[in-house]
User: Which sequence fits this backbone?
């Protein structure tokens, strides 16, 4: 695929984008693409007790900086976690506005088989809002039992290191096992083997326009 000029990652919650395609985002930034990041929930009610309600927003700003994403390209929405289905139309309208404003060539979205209810809404509504863009689904293995790894983006150590640093920026989520460096590197090695590279990230293809 020709290098996309404008890329957008849709993260249902802060950290989903880094976990799903962080190394690829870092690679695209270095190669000259404009990368934008939209998080639809700041998960205020899911934070460990005692943390300020803006903790995840602050951590996301640090994480995306590690990937090289410029702060003006960050978009935060405050839909309440696990209620996206009740706010589907409002979410779609925000996506439509993002499409008009950013005019992305490539959009990263959660996988079709992702079982999290918020992720399902983002996946479905993105296909409506961005129907004239290339659409790739990123994997979050703890959320799905199957994943069709049909598109691969090699991830040199430089970019995987940036992904690890970005994920580690979410100190409030460090207790989750999928936030560990070992897990991130192990998955990248598996995907690398599948495409005959040392490291890679894998995606599902929903639409590819070159």
Assistant:
């Amino acid at each position: 695929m020709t290098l996309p000029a404008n890329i957008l990652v849709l993260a249902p919650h802060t950290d989903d984008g880094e976990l799903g395609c962080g190394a690829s985002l870092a690679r695209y930034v270095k190669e000259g693409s404009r990368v934008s990041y939209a998080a639809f929930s700041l998960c205020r009610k899911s934070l460990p007790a005692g943390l300020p309600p803006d903790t995840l927003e602050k951590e996301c700003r640090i994480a995306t900086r590690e990937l090289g994403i410029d702060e003006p390209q960050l978009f935060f929405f405050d839909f309440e976690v696990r209620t996206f289905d009740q706010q589907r139309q409002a979410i779609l309208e925000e996506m439509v506005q993002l499409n008009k404003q950013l005019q992305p060539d490539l959009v990263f979205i959660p996988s079709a088989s992702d079982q999290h209810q918020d992720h399902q809404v983002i996946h479905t509504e993105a296909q409506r809002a961005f129907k004239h863009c290339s659409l790739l689904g990123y994997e979050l293995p703890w959320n799905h039992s199957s994943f069709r790894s049909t598109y691969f983006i090699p991830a040199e150590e430089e970019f995987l290191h940036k992904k690890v640093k970005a994920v580690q920026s979410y100190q409030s989520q460090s207790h989750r096992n999928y936030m560990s460096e070992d897990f991130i590197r192990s998955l990248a090695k598996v995907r690398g083997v599948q495409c005959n590279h040392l490291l890679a990230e894998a995606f599902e293809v929903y639409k590819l326009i070159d």
Notes: The chain has a mean pLDDT of 97.
